Amino acid sequence: MPFKPLTTLLVALLAALVLAGPTAAAGSPGVAALQVALRSKGLYLGTIDGVRGPQTTAAVRRFQRRARLAVDGIAGPQTRRALGRLGRHRLGSRVLVLGRRGWDVSSLQFVLAWHGFPSGNFDGDLGPRTDAALRRFQRWAGLFPDGAAGPATLARLRTRPARSPLSFSRPVHARVTDRFGPRGARFHAGIDFPSSYGARVRAARSGRVVFARWDAAGYGNLVKIAHGNRIRTWYAHLSSFAVRRGQRVSAGTVIGRVGSTGFSTGPHLHFEVHLRGAAVDPLPTLR
């Protein structure tokens, strides 16, 4: 029996490290969980970014007035209890598995996304998509992919998100707009280059084309290039292809044209970098 309190303490300590660790620089998982809970009440319409700005504080105050609590803009214990299921369970207070719902699940979804394994909407529900993202992260981290976010998984999530050791040239002559990170209630796993329809898209580095066809998951016409060291670049929403699967390309080779295929609202190139299957921020790698 004595081991149970120790196990609980260990999980809590690891969770505290996750919340205070390197990922907090990209936004606090706890604040992200608060934003998810407030969004579920229709009170927060901003991006789930983990940043406690004026919008978040104003939403807390509106909720407190609605719940007839002291209006101080601070999400303390009373406010969190009043938020219901999405206000309960700090990350690490229990092992998270398929079917769980709560503050801790929202925090987990946020941290998984920053580590390159987004799972759709930040919604505090550990459904099939979050379960799949969790298992992919566990495989990536060398853990047994049991879909249970316990002490070992939280410890690995405490480490800094991966970065590509390779650098890349810009795949299209355009400025970057949407960056890697939260966008609305989801996570944007790459960077966007708005450009004119039909503009040339070039390989960002030499490698071998491993995918060049339609992608039904929203990327539209998509090219993937393997560059060695288990690093791949993705080029999405193309209007047309200029390469085929298996073809070797050099940096600067035209691989397609800018388009607006898949889930796209206008012509642009969506560019991603993947390291062993984890999406990593492409911006620091561009030269």
Task: Annotate the secondary structure layout.
Layout: H1 3-20, H2 29-40, H3 54-67, H4 77-82, H5 103-114, H6 128-140, H7 151-157, E1 181-183, E2 186-188, E3 191-194, E4 200-202, E5 207-215, E6 220-226, E7 231-241, E8 248-249, E9 254-258, E10 268-275, E11 278-280
Antiparallel strand pairs: 1-2, 3-10, 4-9, 5-6, 5-8, 6-7, 7-9, 7-10, 10-11
What attributes characterize this protein structure?
two-stranded antiparallel ribbon; Muramoyl-pentapeptide Carboxypeptidase, domain 1; disordered N terminus; 287 residues; alpha+beta; 11 strands
Compact overview of the structure:
Residues 1-25 have low confidence and may be disordered. By secondary structure, the protein is an alpha+beta fold. It has helices spanning 3-20, 29-40, 54-67, 77-82, 103-114, 128-140, 151-157; strands at 181-183, 186-188, 191-194, 200-202, 207-215, 220-226, 231-241, 248-249, 254-258, 268-275, 278-280.
